[in-house]
From TrEMBL:
Entry-linked InterPro entries: TRIM45/56/19-like (IPR047153)
Stated name of the protein: B box-type domain-containing protein
Taxonomic placement: Eukaryota, Metazoa, Spiralia, Lophotrochozoa, Mollusca
UniProt-listed PANTHER family: BONUS, ISOFORM C-RELATED, MEIOTIC P26, ISOFORM F
Superkingdom of source: Eukaryota
């Protein structure tokens, strides 16, 4: 039995990555149209709609396959959005009193009494500066033996300028991340173009060699016959 070439094996592997993960589990091959950012799987339209409405995955972010970021960019975003206190959770809120990013578990455990807790979505919609922020009268100090937050009364007020500086740092960080993602996508597109050009150049060179050898063989054959 003839063995498959490396190009054929690679082509088969790449084609499988474009198939619906749910259908493949049922021994079916259906072309995927959605990419789930949270579970890193691809789905065709029917499975994608089910994934979007399922109780376990209704909050997952689905993108069209052609609009999904490269795998390395997706992994970078995943890493940056993981809660440092709860690795299985994503950061969704900003506590302005403690200047911390926090997930839903952090909100329940450590920020129940915080008065200035905003979702990241709110901050983005409001230009990273929540409206009507009033200075807090207490400040986080430490955690007690039962892992409960301990606060102390603040002797000085927090200025609005300091809160805006905090929001500006977050804004600058997000802009830098967006620029880095654009750079990675541009570089990947450039590499893909270089690979395509290289393949075309090799093919053209082999065709030239083949034509040269064929011409030399015809000339030699004619001389021998003469």
């Amino acid at each position: 039995m003839a063995s498959k070439s490396s190009d054929e094996v690679r082509s088969n592997q790449e084609s499988k990555t474009d198939l619906c993960a749910q259908c493949m589990c049922n021994s079916k091959e259906t072309l995927a149209v959605f990419y789930c950012f949270d579970c890193e799987d691809k789905f065709y339209e029917g499975c994608g709609n089910w994934h979007r409405t399922s109780k376990a995955s209704k909050d997952h972010r689905l993108w069209k396959v052609e609009e999904a970021p490269p795998s390395d960019v997706a992994q970078l975003i995943q890493k940056l959005t993981i809660c440092p206190n709860h690795p299985s959770e994503k950061v969704v809120c900003i506590c302005l009193e403690e200047d911390n990013l926090c997930c839903n578990q952090c909100v329940i455990q450590y920020h129940r009494k915080c008065n200035h807790l905003y979702t990241i979505e709110q901050c983005v919609q409001q230009n990273y500066a929540p409206e009507k922020v009033t200075p807090p009268s207490r400040k986080f100090s430490k955690y007690d033996l039962f892992n409960q937050p301990v606060y102390i009364e603040m002797t000085s007020q927090v200025k609005m300028g300091e809160l805006n500086d905090c929001c500006k740092r977050i804004s600058d960080g997000l802009i830098a991340l967006e620029n880095e993602i654009e750079h990675i996508i541009t570089r990947e597109a450039s590499l893909q173009a270089d690979l395509t050009r290289s393949a075309d150049q090799v093919k053209a060179y082999l065709q030239d060699v083949h034509a040269t050898l064929e011409s030399a063989f015809i000339t030699l054959e004619k001389q021998l016959m003469d």
